[in-house]
């Protein structure tokens, strides 16, 4: 089906219309504090199938279930361990997804065939109003075409989803810019499956035992069973070949000068700008601003027709680990250390 994709305002009228579409089993893109989500009724199998179709997403990759009020966790999760309760108390509403055993009410299509669900209570007010009004929980992956950079504003969603969904609620630019932190539980230990705004350091405030999963920084063997299926897919890639280059600004400049061509661009820090003599886009200086800009800039390189993008390697601490993790996937793990 081809839709005429409407852009809805995040006001009462727009939110009502979005909720009405969701109740009728349609897919609507909604803003969250992390990235835009492609939402549908998490309990309605036909609606959820439409998400997978609109995104072109493999059906074994589970969707996150979004709720607007904490108590709803008990409608969908069979068990909520103590450490998960502590995390929810500390970081919800906010950019944290917890993987928990699911109740039967959540269809397998939503959980990608798994017996668990990823569940999250977003802090974005528009998202929460839409969830409440729709009267259900919303399954929502990032609102990009599978494999493309996640969308951090309505225009990004429109570029990917025009004609594929009936509506996009335009809530402006997302605060965080990278997707939520995803964790699962092993006794009292927290396993980090995907880094995000809530950092390892933050998680350690709740449990001393935080295990960073290998898949965060390493390519997973395609045949291997992984704890978070999203890890095995190529991700966040613009059309250009992205290469992360680790080293000082001087060595970066010298590397680019040797490998420069007409369609080569670099993604550098704001503070490099005055000293950098080749075509570039900047993505901030701090980890927070890099998180906010990384996907937007990856998309912009496509518009510029870039064929190769050399990226100045970000800091890997705090939110920086999330930025590095997304760039690693955009680069297909291609890192050059100078
Ligand atoms: O910030 C976000 O999390 C955004 C917004 C829209 O909420 N959503 C998002 O969804 O990033 P998505 O589908 O693009 O990424 C969800 C990730 C995937 O890597 C998936 O494999 C993992 O979470 N995930 C979801 N449910 C899971 C489960 N039951 N077990 C393990 N991993 C799960
Ligand atoms: Mg995604």
Description:
This protein is an alpha/beta fold. The chain contains 10 helices and 16 strands. An 11-stranded mixed beta sheet has the order 1-8-2-3-7-4-6-5-9-10-11, with helices on both faces. A 5-stranded parallel beta sheet has the order 14-13-15-12-16, sandwiched between helices. A hairpin with a 6-residue loop joins strand 2 and strand 3. The protein has 2 domains: 211 residues, DHBP synthase; 97 residues, Rossmann fold (3-Layer(aba) Sandwich). The protein is globular and about 60 Å long. 49% of the residues are buried. Magnesium ion binds next to loops.
Structural class by sheet pairing and helices: alpha/beta
Give the overall shape, derived from the CA principal axes.
Answer: globular
Bound molecules: threonylcarbamoyladenylate, magnesium ion
**Estimated radius of gyration:** 20 Å
CATH superfamily of the largest domain: DHBP synthase
Short précis:
The chain has 338 residues and is an alpha/beta fold.
What attributes does this structure have?
2 domains; 16 strands; DHBP synthase; alpha/beta; binds magnesium ion; eleven-stranded mixed β-sheet; Rossmann fold; binds threonylcarbamoyladenylate; five-stranded parallel β-sheet; 10 helices; 338 residues; 30% helix
List the helices and strands and how they pair.
Elements (H helix, E strand, L loop, with lengths): L5 E3 L3 H12 L4 E3 L6 E5 L3 H11 L8 E3 L6 H4 L5 H10 L4 E6 L14 E5 L4 H10 L3 E2 L14 H8 L5 E3 L11 E6 L2 E6 L5 H5 L5 E3 L28 E6 L2 H11 L4 E5 L11 E3 L4 H18 L3 E5 L7 H11 L4 E3 L1
Parallel strand pairs: 1-8, 2-8, 4-6, 5-9, 10-11, 12-15, 12-16, 13-14, 13-15
Antiparallel strand pairs: 2-3, 3-7, 4-7, 5-6, 9-10
Helix pairs in contact: 1-5, 9-10
Bound molecules: threonylcarbamoyladenylate and magnesium ion (MG).
């Amino acid at each position: 089906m081809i839709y005429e994709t409407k852009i809805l305002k995040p006001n009462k009228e727009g939110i009502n219309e979005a909720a009405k579409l969701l109740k009728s089993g349609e897919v609507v893109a909604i803003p969250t504090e992390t990235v835009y989500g492609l939402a549908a009724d998490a309990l309605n199998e036909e609606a959820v199938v439409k998400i997978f179709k609109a995104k072109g997403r493999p059906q074994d990759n589970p969707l996150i279930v979004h709720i607007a009020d904490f108590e709803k966790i008990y409608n969908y999760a069979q068990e909520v361990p103590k450490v998960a309760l502590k995390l929810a108390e500390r970081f919800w509403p906010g950019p944290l997804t917890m993987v928990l055993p699911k109740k039967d009410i959540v269809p397998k299509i939503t959980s990608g065939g798994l017996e668990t669900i990823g569940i999250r209570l977003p802090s974005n007010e528009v998202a929460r109003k839409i969830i409440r009004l729709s009267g259900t929980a919303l399954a929502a992956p990032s609102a990009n075409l599978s494999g493309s950079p996640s969308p951090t504003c309505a225009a990004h969603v429109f570029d990917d989803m025009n004609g594929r969904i009936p509506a996009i609620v335009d809530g402006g630019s997302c605060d965080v810019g990278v997707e939520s932190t995803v964790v699962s539980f092993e006794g009292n230990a927290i396993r980090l499956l995907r880094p995000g705004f809530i950092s390892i350091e933050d998680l350690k405030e709740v449990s001393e035992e935080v295990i960073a999963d290998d898949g965060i920084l390493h390519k997973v063997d395609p045949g291997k069973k992984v704890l978070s299926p999203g890890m095995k897919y190529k991700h966040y890639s613009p059309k250009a070949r992205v290469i992360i280059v680790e080293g000082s600004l001087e060595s970066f400049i010298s590397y680019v000068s040797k490998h420069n061509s007409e369609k080569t661009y670099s993604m550098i820090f704001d503070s490099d700008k005055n000293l950098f003599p080749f075509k570039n886009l900047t993505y901030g200086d701090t980890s927070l601003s890099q998180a906010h800009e990384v996907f937007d800039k990856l998309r912009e390189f496509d518009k510029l027709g870039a064929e190769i993008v050399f990226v100045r390697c970000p800091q890997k601490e705090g939110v920086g680990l999330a930025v590095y993790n997304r760039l690693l996937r955009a680069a297909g793990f291609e890192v050059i250390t100078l």
